[in-house]
Amino acid sequence: MNNLGIILYLCNINIDCYMTKELYLAFWGVIAILLSFLPLSVLAQSEEAGFTADRPGVITGPDVLPKGRLQWEMGMGYQQVRQNGTKSYIWTLNTTLLRFGISDYAELRLQGDWNNEGGDIFDYSGSDNVAIGAKAKLFDGWKFVPAVSLLGNVIIPSNSNNNMPNNWSGQMGLLCQNQLTPWLSLGYEGDLTWFDSEKPIIFYGANLGFTLNDRWQLMVEEYNYKYPDSHDNWMELGIIWQLSRRVQIDVNTDIYLNDFKSFWSIAAGISWQITKR
Predict the structure, then answer these.
(1) What pLDDT sits at residue 36?
(2) pLDDT surpasses 60 at 172
(3) CA separation for the pair 129, 162 (Å, rounded)
(4) Are strands 184-194 and 201-211 parallel, antiparallel or unpaired?
């Protein structure tokens, strides 16, 4: 399950979500500042990048697509929710992330889901909210200094799901990663999501990636959502298969650590680098 999907799911059942006009304008100002980092080639070294995907996992890596590359990352999955004696499900029929490199240090992003929801809590089939944003790389990493990127999203209401937020909202994140050994990487992320202009949702987590060989990888991550009056703690496990130089396949599951029995999921996806350059 991706970060946006979990945030919107939690917002769906817990939070009255909105974003003021002033915060919306301020958020786009932050996006403009983020994009202003594009010329910082002194920090972000230009190297020919290999394949990189932001799925599976909720934690987003700092790598960006080189200029001119277009990548489509999509998946589908099943989630079951048990809450206060109720039982519901969510079929994610298509979760899509489109990424396009606008320079060797930044990419544009478009993300959205198509869900079928049913049971005691949900009753809906259609598109969820859409997020547009950018990722800008600030530093490639050096020895023990991590690679660092900034991520910004504006979440646009689709108006087709009455359970989802009906107002614009925003998300900003700091993405870091250390390559500890040739086969082990450590990623970590912290971000804020403004559904409430005074009390944003705080997200933080860490990811371990294990490279078994040139085809297979394993990942495990622990991540958290901090609210003013609650704290949700999650874990995700995933397997990644590099089918070819431009295609990756993955399978993953999320575990709700606050209450193991209340939630379970299974998902699979594919990442396809459509253009080479």
Answers:
(1) 55
(2) yes
(3) 11
(4) antiparallel
Is residue 250 within 8 Å of residue 237, measured between CB atoms? Answer: no
Whether the predicted pLDDT of 12 surpasses 70: no
- The set of long-range contacts for 9-12, using a CB threshold of 8 Å and a minimum separation of 24, is 9/79, 9/90, 10/201, 10/225, 10/232, 11/164, 11/165, 11/195, 12/122, 12/163, 12/164
- What whole-number percentage of the chain has pLDDT above 70? 75
Query: CA 4 to CA 20: how far, in whole Å?
Result: 20
Q: Say which residue the tokens 């991540």 belong to.
A: 223
Compute the distance between CA of residue 144 and CA of residue 233 in angstroms, rounded to an integer. 28
pLDDT 10s digits, 75-108: 999 998 887 778 888 888 889 999 999 998 999 9
What CA–CA distance (Å, rounded) separates 37 from 197? 26
| Residue 77 token pair | 């999955």
pLDDT of residue 178: 94
Name, in order, each residue with C-beta under 8 angstroms of 195's C-beta and a sequence gap of 6 or more: 7, 11, 15, 17, 18, 19, 165, 169, 201
Q: Give the position of tokens 């990636």.
A: 209
Instruction: Mark 241-254 as b/e (b = at least 16 C-beta within 10 Å).
Output: ebeeeeebebbbbb
Please check whether residue 171 is in contact with residue 8, taking contact to mean a CB–CB distance below 8 angstroms.
Answer: no
Query: Considering the chain, what is the average pLDDT of its residues?
Result: 81
**d(Cα 159, Cα 5) in Å, to the nearest integer?**
16
